[in-house]
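User: I'm preparing a small set of examples for a lab meeting where we compare how different chains pack in three dimensions. I only have the primary sequence for this one, and I'd like the structure in token form so I can line it up with the others. Please keep the answer compact; I'll paste it straight into my notes.
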Amino acid sequence: MRQRFSFGKKHFLYTFAAVVFVLALVKWIWIIPGSKPAEPPKPVAAVEPDSIVRRSAANDTLVSDRRNRVRLVGADGMPVRNRITSVSSFRDCFPDLNDIQLATAQRLGVKPVKDRAEAARNKEGLVYVGDNPFFHVQPLSHSIPYLVPRAANLLTHISRAFLDSLSSKGVPFHKLIITSVLRTEDDVTRLRNFNTNASSQSCHRYGTTFDISYNRYVTVEDPDGPERRRVRNDTLKWILSEVLYDQRMLGTCYVKYEVKQGCFHVTAR
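Assistant: Understood. Below is the structure token output for the 269-residue chain.
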């Protein structure tokens, strides 16, 4: 005769102990003893870009936009001759002091280098700036021909706009002359020995800044062709000031009118 199975108190305790053991084993396998369960990552608050970052992003688009073709001939077939207006005042229209330019240069530029040897070893983030169809880099004694890409693009953009403006005003071609580019710490020290106006906190140390001469230009003409008419430097200065004023108002750069150095001091934004 088969004996009937009954689930008593003793069996209940055995079953309960087995379940507790299995749960404890699972916990020991998946969670290291003494450690806390990993908390879900907290959402990272979005960082609002400041004015320098926003301006630089906008300028990358402005400088890289397709250039409009210069209109040289009107509907009547006659050459277009736009007026030369210059600016009301060089000092008032280009007032950006070194302190204003420096904050942007430090954020968007490279770290200053001690001397030429260190500069030769650390050219990451810089591009070579040399003579080309748009501007001329004079022999440099207190700087080296390198800029950050944003500043190099801006320099080419300004130079091409200058040539376009010459064409639209019927003025013979001239190239801009670049007188200073990237300076090392040694360059700044040597320059300050005879130029008391040179700042120890020069924006040129960051590769964002260049100087454009306003009283010297390169005459572009065919050496085998007829002699072309001469243009006063003041006329070219007025046209250059129009170009720089437009760029400054667009927000692509800071510009300081340097009286004693005979140049426009430009920092890319």
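A couple of notes for your slides: The beta strands are 127-128, 135-137, 146-147, 174-180, 209-213, 218-219, 253-258, 263-268. Residues 9-30 form the longest helix (22 residues).

User: Perfect, thanks.
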